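QA checklist item 7 of 12: single-chain prediction sanity check.
[x] sequence parsed
[x] length recorded as 301
[x] structure emitted
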Amino acid sequence: MIMEKSIFSTDILLSSHSHYKIGGEAKYFCEARSVDEVVLALAAWREIGDLESRDIFVLGAGTNVLFKDEGFEGLILKPKINFIEKEDEFLKVGVGVLMSELLEYAIENGLSGLEWAGGLPGTLGGAVYGNAGAFGGEMKDVVYDVVSIDISSLRPAIIRRSSRDCGFDYRASVFKENKNEIIVEAMLKLKKWDRSAIRRETENKIKYRLDKHPMEYPSLGSTFKNIETASERIQAAYLIYEAGLSGVSCGGAMISPKHPNFIVNALNATSDDVKNLIELVKTEVLEKFGVKLEEEIVIHN
């Protein structure tokens, strides 16, 4: 029996689901609140036979994605699987849990290991997907295992991977390489510590972000990855600053003078405005320093 497509919303503005406040309409959009609803959405999507494109894009909180102004003809699937379960020093966490909520839960339960993520936007799923990190910490340091759904076949399969098998690297994971998997939950292993000390360390990180980052404008955080060498990590912000690009704008987008690795939406920027600045930065840094910068944000094409 052909399933109804009423499970999907239609013509949803992606700008309202992006921290950048940029993006056209998604032809189909679905929020799934459980693994069963994810599977149901996938089944319903396969039953729609009148589309030229059957592309699926999995969206978290939209803190790291630049959408096109032209919109998206496929399906935006947003897993909002929100739960946290505690067992001793382990936390089982749903993919849709906001990092801010996870941090508060960890603090209240005296569990340390995520202080570096103070002020980090987005969901657990996005943080695992891109092995988010800051202040010397990364998700790989606390992830015990990850559960995902392989959507490459007609019968989606549940996969559980240990942290070692997740292919974590600098802003990378096996999930980022394999577009046929949807993360649904992760188990984190933390350490018991004093609650007041955890809160103090977390709030220090939040304060740093507020002081040093251009929080007054919509952005996706760091636009480019830092450069990893055998002996050091070179900050992309430093290279962009030294290239004389701080404050340069294109349309409504601007390279932040406060933190040059942030391209902010200063005045109703379009996706092309942002892309033009990205290309300018890459060209100038390559010419001046012989360094090829790579985007940390996801550019949705």
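[x] summary fact logged: The chain has three domains: 5-79, 84-211, 216-299.
[ ] second reviewer sign-off
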